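Record pair follows.
FIRST:
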Amino acid sequence: MKDGRMVILAGGISSRMKKPPAKNLKVENKLIKDADEKAKSMIGVGKDYRPFLDYLLFNARESGYYDIVIVIGENDNSIKEYYGTKDYDNNFYGLKISYAVQPIPAGRKKPFGTADALMWGLKSKTNWAGKKITVCNSDNLYSQKALRIVLNSEYPGILIDYNREALEFEYSRIERFAITIKNKQGFLTDIIEKPTPETIDRVFKQDGYIGVSMNIFSLEYDLILPILETIEPNPERDEKELPEAVKKLANKITNSVFVHPLAEHVPDLTSKSDILNVKKYLEKHYSDFSF
């Protein structure tokens, strides 16, 4: 019985995706139009113009997930128009898809970030109280292997710790990713944005690799929701960030968030310059995609 519960975060305004493309970018006009007008996960990069999000949902279904909440923005209807217009329990190829709307607070131009998005997602599913949920981004394609690891974890919390060496991005991009700090038992103690060379060297000597978080977690509903409700915005970025909430959980309850190492690439659809690479990745790895 597939009973996995998942929250997919798709409520951001995609400001980087909406920026004008480079003049030499060889991307079809209809995909540029998608990028400018839709949630970035709805860009038709897949086979027969299937949206990127179809592939994440396919992997989720094949990994044992059934009950899906997609957190959407209050000014974007592209996801709802495609997956079903009901607020709850739209049937999509055997998945039960519901929506939670992440609002833009008065006085702001964008929502309050990923921790806020998950809070709205969980509050829309009060019947999930007492259970574990997986949460992930909508603009990353997580493998079935990664999704199964977090679904089947016995820990109160778990995150996938991606080996930087396996990520197929340019180094200037990878070095901006936040790195994870673990204790000797393999549990999270910190997530560090913009780590110094000294910190990176220390982590490599301890772990034998540099692990980064790509925002895929399994968390207990009752443990994470109170943290999400009280977390303060990052003073620099003015957003309530999910990695900070997970770190608070890890520090509140010792050995509560296990860090699972994994060496594989994670396709990412952040800006228009990613569209062609993602399209080629899907053609190579999902040539027989059927959903």
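SECOND:
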Amino acid sequence: MKFLNALNKINGLGPQKMKLLLDFFGTSQKIWEADYENLAKSGIGEAISKKISSEKEQIDPDKEWEKLEKENVRIITLKDFSYPPLLREIPSAPYILYIKSDLELSEIFSEPMIAVVGSRKMTSYGKQVAYSFSRELALAGISVVSGMALGVDAEAHLGALEAKGKTIAILGSGLDDKNIGPKTNFNLSRKIINSGALVSDFPIDTESLPAYFPARNRLMAGLTLGTLVVEAAASSGSLITANLALEFNREVFSVPGPIFSPSSEGTNDLLRSGAKLVTSIKDILEELHLEKRREIEKARKIIPDSEEERIILEKLGSEPVHIDNLVKLTKLKTATVASTLVMMEMKGIVKDIGGQNYIYIT
């Protein structure tokens, strides 16, 4: 994990190139230890091979990992048990996700998710809609996903929190406290961490910049079953999320607004383009057949048969973990870990790839 995190510090090394590297080298540590000639052989190209070779000299994987631990930021990868399944489906799925949450990883993405987005400069109408719709979605067992920006995003999170529901904030920055923003929403971020999660694919120490917002928007659209646009001007960034949702074959919902309000031009244009008109959350639940989807996902999901299996699965991914390390990570007895792994391997959940090094089988 620490080498994946270190590699993610290198700008330009996206999910496609990471996949090529991992297919070629097998593990992130071997990628990190490879010289320029071998990196180039992987097929990622000379330019990025040179970039990795030069920039990794200024990156200390151990120190970067210590920063994550200090900030209580956890990592999951594309191949991990806890990686959100819908996000895995999109072409630009990030290979690594950073998560800041008080919840267990298996809990964070366990419910159906809807993105709620809209204007930073919301009207009183937009504020009322964002808050009440998000509250009702949370009461219906839906996780509300937004970007924790000022305006509609913040109201969406607050509505879900008021209902004691789960809400997830996607940030276009690192998850270290100094870069969580906007600063006026820092206290809100603490509440989200307590009952949901802050999520990003940007490494720690990454500042929040407008150039990163489209990448954040792709996560919101990719994570969720659909995107609800509450209020948006004609040039609103919320429309980027809506267009990405369409690109990922997800549903787009739009709340109609006053025809003379500039803040509703974007939402009304979406309706003209075929977005689903929404006047209550019943419209969303019916369109998505959420009860049916829950039954299907429950049938597909690997449900641990014991607390020991759940604990072990939390620590396994595509990167091999030795049984001795699993004992340390899980704080379970050696005999318990060994016997549980045997049963899990028989069920096809995990695999010993040799030398008692285990991976989770997706």
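COMMENT: DSSP finds 19 helices and twelve strands in the chain.
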